[in-house]
Design goal:
This protein is mostly beta strands and 150 residues long. The protein is built from one helix and eleven strands; from the N terminus they run αβββββββββββ.
Length: 150
Amino acid sequence: MPERHLGPRIALLAVMLLAGCSSAPPATSPSVTFGSGATTPGMSGMPAMPNIPAATTASTQGSAPPVAGDAVAIDNFAFVPTTLTVAAGSTVTWTNRDEEPHTIVANDGSFHSPGMGSQATFSYRFATAGTFDYICSIHPFMHATVVVTK
């Protein structure tokens, strides 16, 4: 009669399941140590990453004032400066200093660069006064402005 032996087997299985669910938590939590010596819970045993520059904090004082000149750098997935002021008739040149490709695309469609690899440049002559917002179409979170005065 095989049915009589099921009761002890089910009881044994229940005891094993409960024992597995009630194990004690680990004694320590993992952490990671950064080059500065600071640790973060959750990432122990991680080796330091060599040649990584220390993080910098952004200013919360508002946006930078417009910059005069005729050059914009694309550096660390950002246009530098974010606002450039030039006189009408000026030519602005963008230089990609990143290892990733970027583009320069005016929101109003007035100019559009091809894809620019590392160290590539793109120039555009601003003939009329106005404010020209632009983005990188590959990375649309990158945006900036050229202000053209008379």
